[in-house]
Amino acid sequence: MTQPGTRLLVAVINDPEKLDEILSGFLELGVTGATIVDSEGMGRMLSHDIPIFAGLQAFLSGSRPQNRMIFSVVPESVVDPALALLQEVCGSLASPATGIAFVLPVERVVGLAPELGDQPTAP
Fold it and tell me: pLDDT tens digits, residue range 78-88?
């Protein structure tokens, strides 16, 4: 069974140039695994694909996709420091177009290091 207090940390970072600093900080916190996915926000998608929203493009810079989404299964003890790191690197996530982060409880994980995932069973 997964250790109690295991969480899925999901962060969408609007400035991909900050990704290396975030991942380095995660390593310092003991987060040794994450999945990074290129992503695109709804506003950017609408501004390119639906003419009525084309005015939104003035507020969006660069080419698509622009965001990076980070997924990591972490112990609960790392959640607050990781969220603080994200805001230290990216700025306040309460500010528009900075990013978003959320945390979900994890019921079960298979395929991770023993301290986070299922414990191997004896033969």
Answer: 999 999 999 99
Which DSSP letter does residue 61 get?
-
Q: What residues does 9 pair with on adjacent strands?
A: 72, 103
Q: What are phi and psi of 109, to 5 degrees?
A: -135, 135
Query: Is residue 69 within 8 Å of 39, Cβ to Cβ?
Result: yes
Q: Which residues of 99-121 are buried (b: 16+ CB within 10 A; e: fewer)?
A: bebebeebeebeebeeebbeeee
Instruction: List pLDDT tens digits, range 11-25.
Output: 999 999 999 999 999
AA identity, residue 11:
A
- The rounded distance, in Å, linking the Cα atoms of 91 and 15 is 11
Q: Is residue 28 classed as helix, strand or coil in its secondary structure?
A: helix
Q: Which segments of the chain are extended strands (E)? A: 6-13, 35-39, 67-75, 99-105
Is the alpha carbon torsion for 11, 120, 108, 114 positive or negative? Answer: negative
Phi, psi angle pair for 3, to nearest 5°: -60, 140
